[in-house]
Amino acid sequence: DVQLVESGGGSVQPVGSLRLSCTVSGYTSSSGCMGWFRQAPGKEREGVAAIDSDLYTSYADSVKDRFTISQDTGENMLYLQMNSLQTEDTATYYCAATTRHLANIHVLSPLAPDHWGQGTQVTVS
C-alpha cells in the first residue's frame, strides 16, 4: 500500500518560510506524478505544485516563484519549500500521489491523485 506522511507544518508570520516534507512508502509508479495540494476552511481543495517522473514541475499561479517542489527518490521524500508566505497560504497541505501518467494540464487537479496523506496545517498570521 502507498503511504504518504506529511510533516513540517506550523505557524509562521507573513513573509516567513516553511518546508513541508512527505515521507513516501509503497509508491512504485514510473510514470505517475506527485504533488502538494491544500485546502483552506470553507474552500475547495486546490493543487499547489506537482512533479512528474521526468522531474517536470507545475505550480499554481498563486504560488509560482514562491514555492518549490522537489523530491529525493533515494530517500523516498517529497518536499515543498514555501517562501514569502502570505496569510492566503493558510490551509491544510496534503501530499498526494498519482500512479498513472497525466497530461501536464491535469497534474494539479484535485481529482487526479490516487493516494493522499493525512495533511499538515500551515498557518500564516
Overall description:
The chain is an all-beta fold and 125 residues long. It contains no helices and 11 strands. The strands form 2 sheets. Strands 2, 4, 5, 6, 9, 10 and 11 form a 7-stranded mixed sheet that branches. A 4-stranded antiparallel sheet has the order 1-3-8-7, with no helix packed on it. A hairpin with a 4-residue loop joins strand 7 and strand 8.
Q: Major β-sheet, in short?
A: 7 strands, mixed
Report the portion of residues in β strands. over 45%
Low-confidence stretches: none
Helix content: under 10%
Question: What's the total number of strands?
Answer: 11
- Report the principal-axis shape: globular
Q: Number of helical runs?
A: 0
Could you tell me the radius of gyration in angstroms? 13 Å
Task: Give the SSE order as H and E letters.
Answer: EEEEEEEEEEE
Q: Distance between termini?
A: 37 Å
Mean pLDDT: 95
Structural class: mainly beta
Quick summary:
This protein is mostly beta strands. The protein has strands at about 5, 10, 20-25, 35-40, 45-50, 55-60, 65-70, 75-80, 90-100, 115, 120-125. The chain has no helices and 11 strands.
Topology:
Elements: E1 3-7, E2 10-12, E3 18-25, E4 33-39, E5 46-52, E6 57-59, E7 67-72, E8 77-82, E9 91-98, E10 115-116, E11 120-124
Parallel strand pairs: 2-11
Antiparallel strand pairs: 1-3, 3-8, 4-5, 4-9, 5-6, 7-8, 9-10, 9-11
